[in-house]
From TrEMBL:
Residues 149-160 have a biased composition (Acidic residues). This is AAA+ ATPase domain-containing protein. PANTHER family: AAA-TYPE ATPASE FAMILY PROTEIN / ANKYRIN REPEAT FAMILY PROTEIN, AAA-TYPE ATPASE FAMILY PROTEIN _ ANKYRIN REPEAT FAMILY PROTEIN. The lineage of its organism: Eukaryota, Fungi, Dikarya, Ascomycota, Pezizomycotina. It comes from Bionectria ochroleuca (Gliocladium roseum). Signal peptide: none annotated.
Length: 1123
């Protein structure tokens, strides 16, 4: 009965009682029958398993036709090469056959050939004694053969009876019977050897003495070799191979022309690929032949071997054959072998002549190889060292050649490259010969299936040394998966046939009928290799349904749906024998905080697993902090470990933008730890591998990282394949809030939900708006405010919370600010003199917004957001900007009434490439607020290209949706200078279409501003008629202000405030001097006011103290009565 062990993944074969034919086993899914023509009793009849893991196929659900038992394909281990009998299928009958046909468990032909050749090889070995040589070869080959199979005890006993060391004569007869042609050929070779001088009897006796004195038995050597490696592929006759290997062709020439024979060379030449190894074997033999021909004593032939290749390239098998080969050509004195899986040897008196380090990657210190040489060179016989490397790191290379003694002895590594597509096809052909699912397949159809399979296996396995290709292990897994599909299909069809037969013919189905039907069903088909058309995963995928239920994310859903379509399209192309289109699995997920990047990444992992794009589908979540090491080299190690763990899985690196840092010029300023992580990702990630890597981060920073770091990062993570998560709009945010409240079983009134929408709309303009995260925060704050509100009203608020819905004040304590906009506007501009026209203009914007909201129109696109404030200094431009922030906040257009004031120095960079990032940083800071650029005309007057760069950046930013309508931008400056600035760039004027002109203050406005400023400290004028311009005092004050306005550099309100400061100082000094019992009054006389005005006029006209006043000032002083 053939069963599949789900624990270790190896197929175990056991003979039925009495050697019963393996085509008669139980059929669980066939009603009323006890025999099955397809082998396993535990076979699923479910649909195809294309989407399952290469390493483990999960048990499919039971179908209507019968039970669905556990079924798992075989998995070769990395430590041993699995045996040929580990293939799935029916192989029980093979050991019972007397006439040994080529098969998985049949190595007698090679053994007999080896016995004859080893006993009579021309120009190779000293001739062995007849029976002793046959006995030794029988034991040795039997030891190797026992490692090649996993037969049951009866089969093993049968094999052992054939090759008992004590029955060498019988075995020789059996060998001659099973390989008569080879036996005759061997006799001819012996005769030829005798004619050519052959080996003398003295040499035979000498070899017998050596063998008799060996401390380690032949059986022990065979068992040691057995543990080195086992093979999945049968050896073939080198003459029947169709490749163009130069070494194989040269060996065939030597066999043909010089009658040379060597069973181990035949085995190595029958391997697929690995021309360098074949050439090495052949060169070693020719070197020893040459030495024997010239009777030169070769004491140290330098036979050490270093193998470097990926798993599944046959390193251990080559080492196994090489050890026997060296003994066969006389390089080593006796067959004593040892294997080490560590990095050193123990000096335990071993007499081994071949030492094999099967995990030589552990050797990475410069003291280890010299220590090994010290031990082996103490032995009485020369020792050959064989090293097997999978990675061969820099440290291992340094260790191998650390001293001159090492460099003189050890050769260069021989690289075993991955099998190419043609070699994969040749290997599959050999493996298919012994698989029952190919037994009834025509050769042409078989080759078509295997060529397709070879092409699919090699697709995406880039590079001759790519680590992602498992070579022979991958081939076995793919064949196992195909066998599973064949068995499931056959069982399903056979079960359906048996039901129909029983219903139409009546009675039970006999074995003969089953066998006939099995013959009709045949072996594997192309459908078994490809898999049947899979159902649309979208219909059953829970992950896809979850994504579909998420709010927003239209572009993300569209991209994932494209992934489904592409997977189905590729499956159809495979059925047509065409290669599938590449499906990019390594993606960037770009979006601001709270848009669901990490959540969708986890669901994306489930989808690519369901589509069979990765084999396992486990999600491995990392952050930059998990990858950044403390010491040099640790970051690379952590990254490699994460990538290795992610093989067959999905690796998500959240906040990946933190792997990159830029300087003020926008250039790469990352430290060596972050650079090491990026470089390791680039070096170890290639398209088409069984792994999905997702980088999640903020859009701008991620794009900078992709463009400015390692150039290979763009090819691994193309930005055109990135999934972009756009910020949620107002409707989507409200949907998320509704879902959150429903999840928490919280009720909110309609008015409250309307206010919540307004709050979210304002918050969306902030630089780091959290999207879904901010919605959760808003709901949480509302609950807390509700608790405080109800607690203030009633002590039993806990009960009322269940009944009382959330109110508008819970979402925004100042929710009714828009109803107080008119009053707030008047309060904002109260005290500002001469701003009637400006106030009127902003009142118009306010009314327009109110009217649009009445008709459900969003006023944001129609309200101006970019202003130019033009006017002389001191006319209130900066003050008005601050008022604008408050106005727009009250109208609900800004998230804050804050005003960000910047100057030109905040925008202009010091070095090339620094200006753009500085301008962008100011706009980022002003999002949701007012950005006020004072003295903006200085942008046009600069003497460097940085000023023009700032203007260009300003024009560009004002067109980006992120900033347009989400902030108020004001350029302020003097009238003519601002006109020159707007004329310097054609796009600047169109970006700032709304101009507000601030004129000079009139004398009356100056006096009003002065009175208002002094009143803040309760300072008054003694004369009440100063504001009356028709009075004498009022006319004198007005004339003084008119003369001040005409002076150069008059700063309007600021200069008025300067006069006010002087008066304030004078008043309080005077009050301090009047130390009376009653509190002195804070007042200013008309004459004192005129003196302060005349003092500023003298200062502005540069009149020195003691110099005569000009006529205009004398006239004012005379009219005021000062002179």
């Amino acid at each position: 009965m053939t069963t599949i062990d789900s624990t270790d993944g190896l197929v175990e074969t056991s003979a039925r009682d009495g050697g019963q034919d393996n085509n008669k086993t139980d059929l669980n899914g066939l009603p009323g029958q006890s025999q099955s023509p397809i082998g396993p009793t535990e076979i699923s009849n479910s649909d195809d398993d294309d989407s399952q893991s290469e390493d483990a196929l999960p048990t499919p659900p039971e179908s209507d036709d019968g039970p669905s038992p556990n079924l798992a394909p075989s998995q070769p281990t990395d430590l041993e090469w699995p045996t040929e009998t580990e293939e799935p299928g029916n192989q029980e009958a093979e050991p019972a056959k007397k006439n040994h046909e080529p098969g998985l468990n049949d190595t007698d032909e090679q053994e007999n050939k080896a016995q004859v050749v080893e006993g009579s090889n021309n120009n190779e070995n000293e001739k062995r004694d007849g029976k002793e040589g046959e006995k030794e070869e029988a034991n040795g080959n039997e030891g190797v053969r026992k490692g090649d199979g996993d037969e049951d005890q009866e089969s093993n006993e049968e094999e052992q009876e054939k090759v008992q060391p004590d029955s060498g004569e019988e075995e020789s007869k059996e060998s001659e019977g099973g390989n008569g042609e080879n036996g005759g050929e061997s006799k001819e070779i012996e005769e030829e050897n005798r004619e050519n001088g052959g080996e003398s009897k003295e040499n035979e006796e000498e070899r017998k003495d050596v063998n008799a004195n060996e401390e380690v038995s032949v059986d022990t050597a065979a068992k040691e070799l057995e543990s080195w490696a086992r093979t999945l592929v049968e050896d073939e006759d080198p003459e029947s191979m169709m490749d163009d290997s130069p070494s194989r062709l040269e060996w065939l020439r030597l066999k043909r022309e010089d009658n040379q024979e060597n069973v181990h060379l035949d085995r190595i030449m029958s391997m697929v690929g690995h021309e360098k190894i074949k050439a090495h074997f052949l060169a070693m033999k020719m070197r020893m032949d040459m030495a024997k021909r010239w009777k030169v004593d070769v004491e140290e032939p330098k036979a050490d071997l270093i193998l470097y290749g990926n798993d599944g390239t046959g390193k251990k098998r080559i080492a196994q054959i090489y050890a026997e080969f060296l003994y066969s050509i006389g390089v080593i004195a006796h067959r004593t072998f040892e294997r080490s899986s560590g990095h050193s040897l123990e000096d335990n008196g071993s007499k081994a002549t071949v030492t094999f380090f099967d995990q030589a990657d552990k050797i990475d210190r410069t003291t280890e190889v010299p220590a090994i040489l010290d031990i082996v060179e103490k032995r009485s016989d020369p020792v050959v060292l064989i090293f097997s490397f999978t990675n061969l790191s820099k440290d291992s290379r340094n260790a191998l050649y650390s001293t001159s003694r090492c460099r003189n002895r050890l050769p260069d590594p021989i690289v075993l490259e991955n099998y190419n597509e043609n070699e994969v096809f040749q290997l599959l052909k050999r493996m298919a010969k012994t698989r029952p699912d190919f037994e009834h397949v025509q050769e042409e159809e078989r080759d078509a299936i295997l060529r397709f399979l070879a092409r699919r296996i090699r697709q995406g396995s880039e590079g001759a040394m790519s680590k992602k290709f498992g070579n022979i292990y991958t081939l076995k897994r793919e064949l196992d998966k195909m066998t599973v599909r064949w068995k499931r299909r056959t069982l399903r069809e056979l079960t359906e046939w048996s039901k129909n037969y029983a219903s139409t013919q009546g009675g039970e189905v006999d074995e003969k009928k089953i066998e006939e039907q099995m013959m009709k069903l045949g072996g594997v088909t192309l459908d078994d290799a490809i898999g049947s058309n899979p159902p649309d995963v979208r219909n059953e995928s829970k992950a896809w349904k979850t994504i579909q239920g998420m709010v927003g994310l239209k572009s993300v859903k569209k991209e994932i749906e494209h992934l489904f379509n592409l997977a189905q399209f590729n499956h159809k192309r495979e059925r047509q024998g065409k290669p599938g289109l590449p499906i990019p699995l390594n993606r960037c997920f770009l979006g601001d905080p709270g848009v669901g990047k990490t959540t969708v990444a986890r669901l994306f992992a489930s989808i690519v697993t369901e589509l069979g794009l990765v084999s396992k589908g486990q999600v491995i979540l990392k952050t930059p902090n998990d990858l950044i090491g403390e010491y040099i080299g640790e970051s690379e190690k952590y990254t490699r470990d994460a990538l290795e763990k992610a093989q067959g899985n999905v690796l998500i690196i959240d906040d990946a933008h933190m792997l990159y840092r830029s300087n003020r010029c926008g250039r790469n300023n990352s430290d060596q730890y972050r650079v090491g992580i990026i470089d390791t990702l680039v070096a170890n990630i290639t398209p088409g591998e069984d792994r999905c890597v997702i980088l999640c981060g903020y859009p701008q920073q991620m794009e900078e990282m992709i463009l400015n770091s390692n150039p290979g990062l763009q090819r691994r993570f193309p930005m055109e394949n990135a999934l972009r998560f756009h910020n949620y709009n107002d409707d989507e945010l409200c949907q998320i809030l509704d879902l959150k409240l429903a999840q928490d079983q919280v009720v909110a009134s309609d008015h409250a939900l309307k206010v919540a929408r307004q709050v979210l709309s304002r918050n969306r303009t902030r630089p780091r708006f959290g999207n879904g995260g901010d919605v959760e925060n808003l709901a949480c704050r509302a609950r807390l405010r509700q608790v405080e509100r109800l607690r203030a009203l009633n002590e039993n608020y806990m009960f009322e919370m269940q009944e009382d819905p959330l109110g508008p004040e819970d979402f925004d304590p100042d929710f009714d600010r828009s109803t107080r906009a008119d009053k707030n506007r008047d309060d904002v501009f109260r005290g500002m003199v001469g701003f009637e026209e400006i106030v009127k203009q902003f009142r118009g914007y306010q009314k327009m917004a109110d009217g649009m909201q009445l008709f459900g129109v969003d006023p944001k696109p129609h309200i101006p957001w970019a202003f130019v404030f033009k006017g002389p200094p001191g006319t209130g431009k900066t003050t008005t900007a601050r008022k604008v922030g408050k106005l727009f906040y009250d109208m609900g257009f800004l998230s804050s009434d804050e005003v960000i004031v910047c100057s030109i120095s905040d925008l202009i960079g010091e070095y090339s490439g620094q200006t753009g990032p500085k301008v962008l940083a100011q706009f980022e800071q002003g999002l949701g607020k007012v950005l006020f650029i004072d003295e903006a005309y200085r942008l046009q007057g600069g003497c460097s290209s940085f000023h023009n760069e700032a203007i260009g950046e300003l024009v560009d930013i004002m067109t980006k949706p992120r900033y347009v309508g989400n902030m108020v931008v004001i350029l302020a400056g003097y009238g003519d200078d601002m006109e020159n600035l707007l004329a310097s760039n054609q796009g600047l004027r169109s970006r700032f279409p709304t101009h507000i002109v601030f004129p000079h203050m009139t004398p009356g406005h100056c006096l009003q501003h002065l009175i208002h400023t002094l009143s803040k400290l309760n300072i008054t004028f003694c004369d009440d008629n100063l504001e009356d311009s028709t009075s004498a005092e009022g006319d004198i004050v007005a004339e003084a202000f008119r003369q001040l306005i005409r002076t150069k550099g008059w700063a309007n309100g600021r200069d008025v405030e300067t006069i006010a400061k002087n008066i304030i100082g004078f008043v309080f000094m005077k009050a301090a001097e009047e130390k009376t019992s009653r509190k002195p009054s804070l007042s200013v006389s008309f004459l004192d006011l005129v003196r302060f005005l005349l003092e500023m006029l003298r200062e502005r006209n540069n009149i020195k103290r003691g110099s005569p006043d000009p006529p205009a000032l004398k006239d004012l002083a005379r009219r005021a009565g000062l002179i």
